[in-house]
Amino acid sequence: MSEQLTTIQASNHPIYFNEKGYEALNEHLRNNKYSNLFIIVDSNTNESCLPKLLPILETDLTIEIIEFENGEINKNIETCVEIWNVLTELGADRKSLVINLGGGVVTDLGGFVASTFKRGIDFINIPTTLLAMVDASVGGKNGVDLGNLKNQIGVFNLPVMVLVNTEFLETLPQNEMRSGLAEMLKHGLIFDKNYWEKFLDLKELDYADFDTLIHRSVAIKNEIVTIDPTEKNIRKSLNFGHTLGHAIESYFLESAQKTTLLHGEAIAVGMILESYIAYKKSLLTNAEYVEIKEAIKAIFDDIAFDTNDIDPILELLIHDKKNEYGSIQFALIDGIGNIKINQLVENELILEAFTDYQS
Fold first, then answer.
1. Residue ranges of the 3-dehydroquinate synthase C-terminal domain (predicted)?
2. pTM of the full structure
């Protein structure tokens, strides 16, 4: 493990790293009179992560495990209803505590379940995937998908604390690690050119440096959401790559003949497409665009689109929750490390971006 990482103070809760998080969690359990403790897991984290967490909990509280089947396809209101019913049957009350142990699906859904049960009970996020560590568990967004439309139903509500423990990454498959890397690349592209440049030669990256990189990514996201917690302004910069990326992810999720993409795989495509748009709008130089495209393509496999795919993807943009007054708003990078929000983009340019991505 690398050096001791400092705790990051978010708007009204701390984000702890590694061992420090477990100490803080046990202290929190000692200092608060909770009635019982519920740990929400999916079928993956129940098997691979729960056995790491249970032995460190120092509490006399009754601990109940609530498991649901893993996968974005289960991040819906039906799963919430099942969990609300289980909480009710097991005697959860307003003094219960929920711990969400899992990737973004678990922290998004578990946070939403806790935020709405009896008008809101305390919850703690323990992200177990790289994606959840650097993105989903930070910033207070909780919610579920509506059909294939991502994150349409949800609330802004903050956890009591977030515990980032990189030992959970040891259980993570390579494609899931890459998926999280997409959000880290995004943080560099929108906010910190030096940070972006650390990823240009991944072979040079030491695994020991990885904790420090995760810490920096969380710090960048936290800085942005602290300034703008409910996405009225600068927080929209975090949507870079996501306007097209979410539409692609939704389309591949609902399309029977397509293999479902991981979030980061879709966002990687979205970042290339939206960088091309930024280049065509003279926000990026050609050299910067090529650098971004080559760096991302060196990490992520190409995704094939045929002519019949593009129209339904554009159709899905209409439902994007970032839209205002019926127009599609993009966050586009304005030179590496800077961003311009609320950018309108015409369909022709989007189609051109897809053509260039495939070239």
1. 180-323
2. 0.92
